[in-house]
User: What shape does this take?
Amino acid sequence: MKGIDEQTYYEILEVSSAATSREIQKAYEHAKETFHTDSLAVYSLFSEQEIQGIQVAIEEAYRVLMDETLRKSYDQSHYQILGQQKLEKPPEIPAPLREKKPPRASADVPVHVGEEIYRGKTLRQIRERMSIDLETIAQETRINLKTLELIEGEDLEKLPPLVYLKGFLKGYAQSLGLDPHKVVEEYVHFLDEEKKKIAS
Amino acid sequence: MVRSGNAPYLFKNMGPTQSKDSKTIWTIGGGKGGSGKSFITVNMGICLSKSGSRVILVDADLGGANLHTFLGLPPPAFTLSDFIKKRVKHLHEVLIPTEVPNLFLLTGAQDLLNAMDSKNVQKRKLLRSIQHLEGDYVLVDLGGGNSISVLDFFLMSDGGILVVTPEPTSIENTYRFLKSAFYRRLRQSVSSHAVKALIDGAMDRKSEIAIQNPYELIKAVRRINEEEAKKIEMEVETFQPNLILNQVRSRKDIEIGFSIRSACQKYFGIRLHYLGYIVYDQDVGYSVRRRRPLVLENAHSRAAQCVSEIASKLASRHQMSFQF
Assistant: This one.
């Protein structure tokens, strides 16, 4: 049995060391939900201090594992520390989702999506951290590339009608391994708030 | 409202729970009364018996033995008390056949387990006899409470099943029950008095021994007795209880099961198997009032389908998992 400070980043997020960025994203969403301060599953089991410690560990694990360079470096140092002879196979991102070019510059900047709601900007940040280009999402989801750009760009004037938008958001969220209900709910809430601001 | 069945999730192999003579004993417990343990025991038992397996339901609910009511049977003439009080020699003599082929009931008198707390010999005899019953599956309904006897019955098999509803009170009581069972199991595995005292200290929050969680306990034990620490770690490794989430109303409720599993992994270091969920369904209440098991009365109801699916996964030893 290991304490949270002895667990590997993979153990903290409950994923295998070969997990894809999509799996890590999903595991992170789950861990964040589970160890939220108000979560029914933890408040009666852990102290507030313990929960805070786990939350910090989850954010750190996510930050490192979602960054290809940091992850490689972590894997190497971790297995060296353990004295293991053989390095595990580096994580494999499914071919259609792997961008050929190196991750964009913004992927090096930590994104604390846990503190933000899902809106166009956050969806783009998550996608970029996963090194997936928008064309690939368009191919996979069969959502028009222009529509995806409008979703990320939060263009209130040009976004499709709400009934269609919800479907597009759901498909986009699923392709990133995010909770589609949460993404739709928060994105629509964000739009409502923006519209109110404009009206006032 | 959520769909019946557990289809959107994958099922993974779960740990072995079968005893040496290929009989499987499942003990159904959890902290709170009213979470649906008896309903699940009866209906799951019927589902398992339908596949031709010989199933024995043991009513060890100390708050009130009433599995017979769920099955529409009158209060039984013979109970576990007759065996304990030596009015019958063998446990199988108090087995009651039911209208369901292959399904038998062994019912207990009220407060049976409480009464046995001080009589360890009787308890061991009963546990041993249950383990020697002839059947493919033995499902033991424990009811609520955290008494020593309830814990010992729960720990009788590695396949203890916790039934929880997605409410704070139910989850809180279940954790309390799980902590008690967990520490009781650890305590049984060690022989050193000093280590037993540490475990007792960990169980008692007001104790002067400042051990807040199982991880700190193992560290403390390791400082005084490395061998006993290894035994405890082995117990943690092999303790793999199961979880059924009952009365779920939304997708969010279903996911609480996964969160409980993750919380148990982080806190206890144990692998909790999430067997599945049962949707909230008014047909459950109707069937209980009619004293007819739901899977017989209304097999197509959403709750019945959930129970049936869990029983089928239980028989093939699978658990729910996230689909990445």
Notes: Chain B touches chain A at residues 166-168, 171-172, 175, 212-215, 218, 233, 236, 251, 255-256, 258-260, 262-263, 265-267, 269, 322, 324 (CB under 8 Å). The longest strand of chain B covers residues 242-248. The longest helix of chain B spans residues 168-189. Residues 1-20 of chain B have pLDDT under 50 and may be disordered.
